[in-house]
TrEMBL record:
GO terms for molecular function: ATP binding; tryptophan-tRNA ligase activity. SUPFAM superfamilies: Nucleotidylyl transferase. Its main location: cytoplasm. This is Tryptophan--tRNA ligase. Pfam families: tRNA-synt_1b. Residues 489-520 form a coiled coil.
Length: 526
């Protein structure tokens, strides 16, 4: 496969924040190293199953402005993290940076997201993906060291607390690599081929960087399981999905609902569940509903009404008939996936109330699925397992390049580096394309197109900071025709100049903090 540049390089403009959806309809591909052309965010919901962030917003205590403004537009399973933040329970946040160039204002979004979670009590992790930069991008160790330092200084300058949080680089973290090795045993080449388009020509180190990222994502849970959020761009979603799968595969037990002693496939189980609800035990000989009765009921019901494919029907009937007079009773099942014998025995002991033990599973009759999941995790952790919770993620929109089109780290005029001289930052904004009209008169009449304006994005994503009213005023004045691009850019350019000057001052101030932080700044190989 091709290895492109960083995510921002290849991504198309995220539409700014007020449209909530986004227009346009190119193909959508999520490729961490390739061309993630995200021109239609709606497709990410429909095709990839990313959930809309606005639907969890209310559950987030004191949400960040990037959340409020829809810059963070999507998530996977963020609710447990929001809940932990609300309740003051353990949670973690982790993201990683490939040190391939200067940190820029796109990376600042992720820095801010990590810091925000840290300030709300989450264990915070920032990592330098040096193995990935070396294998997927061919960066030398010297270059990596230089860029790594720059990322870390900006992260600290923006408020990351290195004493409370954890910083590491992939290459010198032995625990991480052990975890990566272990997770690698649960993934195979065909899977990486399907997810990432790897082929026979993909080098092994690149594959190793994938399992390393899987380990990164689960690293915060190494000591104990906790809700963990990974803030990233949507191009990283394939990694998040794989990590969620792998987390599941390491688990000792699988908890599910069941109706009888034998296993049913999900579609079969739904059918039996429906009939269990419909049938009245009083209508059968000894007042109990038995497997044969369910089988008979199925046979009497026309196929259309059952709404299941014929082969499901065949297999469920066989199972029910074989079980014969066994009563149908709902229960919570712990299926033994990869527990040690000791862990399986410990689980049996730990289950309260009526239970039944089989060769590969235990059924509990007085436990809800939720409680059972907690119990399974507890027993797993007590018996040497990880008990990983599936990691959550949040996704932010990509910024539009200042020159229009993509923001590209190889086109300096298209982005603002956090290391840009403040005067250069000023000039770049002054030279930016806008969503303005041909003439001032036309703009006064029709209003500007803030939704298509990279300068407006600068305000919303960065310059307005926490001040929603300011962001809204810029937007309203623009689309209302009261704001003209010249003045608007002048204001933005001045604000960027101020921001860069302040940020760079802070970077200088945190040099000492970085020296004291527990991370190797020089690669042993450089
Ligand atoms: N692959 C990420 C990138 O392209 C970097 C990365 C490595 C990362 N490990 C991670 C991101 C863990 C989030 C979580 O920039
Ligand atoms: Fe963009 Fe400002 Fe012009 Fe509106 S007035 S189009 S926000 S530069």
């Amino acid at each position: 496969m091709m290895t492109g540049d960083d995510p921002l390089e290849e991504s198309e403009s995220g539409k700014p924040v007020t449209d909530g959806g986004a227009a346009g309809a190119d193909d959508v591909a999520l490729d961490p190293w390739g061309s993630s052309a995200v021109s239609d965010y709606r497709k990410l919901f429909e095709e990839f199953g990313i959930e809309r962030f606005d639907e969890v917003l209310e559950e987030v205590p004191d949400p960040h402005y990037l959340m409020r403004r829809g810059v963070i537009f999507g998530h996977r399973d963020y609710r447990p993290v929001a809940e932990a933040l609300r309740e003051g329970e353990d949670a973690a946040v982790l993201s990683g940076f490939m040190p391939t160039g200067d940190p820029h204002i796109g990376h600042k979004l992720v820095f801010d997201e990590i810091i925000w979670h840290q300030q709300r009590g989450a264990d915070a992790y920032g990592l330098i993906a040096d193995l990935e930069a070396n294998s997927a991008r061919g960066m030398s160790w010297d270059e990596i060291d230089e860029h790594a330092r720059d990322y870390l200084l900006s992260l600290l300058a923006l408020g990351f607390d290195p004493e409370e949080g954890t910083l590491y680089r992939q290459s010198t973290n032995r625990e991480l690599q052990d975890l990566a090795f272990e997770l690698g045993a649960d993934a195979n080449f065909s899977e990486l081929e399907a997810i990432y388009g790897f082929d026979g020509g993909t080098d092994v180190s690149h594959m190793q960087s994938v399992v390393t990222q899987m380990a990164d994502i689960l690293y915060p849970q190494l000591e104990e399981p906790k809700p963990t959020v990974i803030p990233v761009g949507p191009d990283q979603d394939p990694h998040v999905r794989l990590a969620r799968d792998l987390a599941e595969r390491t688990r000792f037990f699988k908890v599910s609902k069941a109706y009888a002693s034998f296993e049913l496939e999900p579609a079969e189980r739904d059918l039996v569940a429906d009939l269990y609800e419909q049938l009245d035990p009083a209508e059968f000989d000894d007042d109990s509903l038995r497997c044969v009765h369910v089988a008979e009921a199925i046979e009497e019901t026309p196929l259309e009404e059952l709404g299941v494919p014929a082969d499901t029907l065949g297999s469920v009937l066989t199972k029910l008939e074989e079980a014969g007079m066994e009563p149908v009773r709902p229960r919570t099942r712990f299926f033994d996936r990869r527990a040690t014998d000791e862990a399986f025995d410990a689980l049996i002991d730990a289950i309260d109330g009526e239970k039944r033990v089989y060769e590969n599973h235990v059924d509990a009759f007085e436990l809800e699925v939720g409680e059972a999941e907690e119990l399974a995790r507890e027993v797993e952790v007590d018996n040497g397992g990880y008990g990983f919770r599936p990691p959550s993620s949040i996704y932010h929109r990509f910024m539009t390049g200042l020159t229009g089109g993509k923001m590209s780290s190889s086109v300096p005029a298209s982005h603002i580096s956090l290391l840009d001289d403040p005067e250069d930052g000023y000039d770049k904004v002054k030279a930016a394309t806008t969503g303005g009209r041909e003439t001032a008169a036309e703009q006064r009449e029709k209003g500007g197109k803030a939704d298509e304006c990279p300068v407006y994005e600068l305000y919303a994503y960065l310059l307005a900071g926490d001040d929603d009213e300011f962001a809204k005023r810029v937007y309203d004045e623009c689309v209302g025709g009261e704001r003209l691009c010249g003045d608007c850019k002048e204001q933005a350019a001045q604000l960027i100049r101020e921001f860069l000057a302040e940020h760079q001052e802070k970077r200088a101030e945190v040099e000492g903090l970085l020296e004291d932080a527990d991370i190797e700044l020089e690669s042993p190989r450089a």
